[in-house]
Amino acid sequence: MNSIYNYTRECLEDFFKEIGESKFRALQVFDWLYIKRVKSFDEMTNLKKDLTKYLKKTFSMEKLKLVKKQSDVDVKKYLFELFDGNKIEAVLMHHDYGNSLCVSTQVGCNMGCRFCESGRLKKLRNLSAFELVLQVLAVEEDIKDRVSHVVLMGIGEPFDNYDNVMKFINIINDPKGINIGIRHITVSTCGIVPKIKKFIGEKTGVNLAISLHAPTDEIRNKIMPINKVYKIEDIISAVKDYIKATNRRVTFEYILLKDINDTDECARKLANLLKGINCYVNLIPYNETSHIEYKTSPKVTINRFYDILKESNINVTIRREFGSKVSAACGQLRSEQIDLKGTIK
Ligand code: SAH
């Protein structure tokens, strides 16, 4: 499908130049798509009839199909159907600073993190940039408000779909379009080191988050198979390069799994590992799921872990628990709807 939402403004300019039109048309079309939010080319009234006809023939303006929505006070979870029938999810969190949308980047995921629901279904395919853009548009339409922040932390590994993810960021960041500030966009990776290095070269200003989840290779190997390819030492070294080049602070995500990675010793080792790095640690209370045996660490353990990091002068926060009632952890809603062969229950 040749979706119009797959095009950055620069690509649309090239397209219009190629067909002998002024590149200014790209700006007009962007305005209709992302500011006025029209649903058809016919509504783009400042384009000539012939051009409208040609655009209709060339591009699709189809949107995602909303299959299911679950709402709670400060969180909404969406299950969307893609054009090939596959399903993905997005989660909106209302913060006091704005609306933050967590988008999926792939159908399924190949990283196989043991605690994560998404990996129960192997990657079927990457999402195209337009399928990411359409998640943002669908949610904005539903809430009748702006999405102010985007986190690439839904189903999938963004750095395993690198080019489409970069294109998506370009489109939603465009000041003549959806205009989500670059510093309001966060890419989260399980640590694909060559892509972290490539990302340094993009000079986008996008926030980088690393799903670390363990202070030693021994523990990380057990819960994150990717660690057998890229060791903690390699990740830390790439992160240091990133900070040196960008002067940006990096986030380390750390899910607390009872008796796996939540001991005092783990906290001390983590503090040691991150000492002197311009970063902050986001401690995530594990969102338990029925298919996976890991348990959430008790509150006292989480607080102790936090205190040890704090005493070691590590910037640390405990993530506010969102959406455990609406199956908001990565992959959960989709997994409830679909058995592993992909049929809807
Ligand atoms: N593949 C990317 C982005 C998707 S996962 C990555 O690994 O960063 C987004 C975050 O949600 C990761 O930190 C992941 O480890 C975490 N996560 C997955 N399942 C979770 C669960 N059940 N409870 C809490 N966090 C979870």
Explained architecture:
The chain is of the alpha/beta class and 345 residues long. The two termini are 28 Å apart. It is built from eleven helices and twelve strands. Strands 1-2-3-4-7-8-9-10-11-12 form a ten-stranded mixed beta sheet, with helices on one face. The protein has a two-stranded antiparallel ribbon with strand order 5-6. The radius of gyration is 21 Å and the shape is elongated. It has two domains: 4-58, Orthogonal Bundle (DNA polymerase, domain 1); 65-326, TIM Barrel (Alpha-Beta Barrel). The protein binds S-adenosyl-L-homocysteine. S-adenosyl-L-homocysteine is lined by residues 111, 113, 115-116, 153, 157, 188-190, 211, 253, 255, 284, 286-287, 289, 329-330.
Uncertain spans, ≥5 residues at pLDDT below 50? 338-345
Number of helices: 11
| Proportion of helical residues | 25-40%
The CATH topology of the largest domain turns out to be TIM Barrel
Morphology call: elongated
Q: Describe the biggest sheet?
A: 10 strands, mixed
Percent of sequence in beta strands: 15-25%
Radius of gyration, in angstroms, nearest whole number: 21 Å
Name some characteristics of this structure.
345 residues, alpha/beta, DNA polymerase, domain 1, TIM Barrel, 2 domains, two-stranded antiparallel ribbon, 11 helices, elongated, binds S-adenosyl-L-homocysteine
What would you say about this model in short?
This protein is an alpha/beta fold.
Write the layout of secondary structure elements.
Blueprint: H1 9-18, H2 24-35, H3 49-58, E1 65-71, E2 75-81, E3 87-95, E4 98-102, E5 106-107, E6 125-126, H4 129-143, E7 149-152, H5 162-173, E8 185-189, H6 193-202, E9 207-211, H7 217-223, H8 232-246, E10 250-256, H9 264-274, E11 279-285, H10 299-311, E12 315-318, H11 332-337
Parallel strand pairs: 4-7, 7-8, 8-9, 9-10, 10-11, 11-12
Antiparallel strand pairs: 1-2, 2-3, 3-4, 5-6
Bound molecules: S-adenosyl-L-homocysteine.
S-adenosyl-L-homocysteine binds next to strand 8 and strand 10.
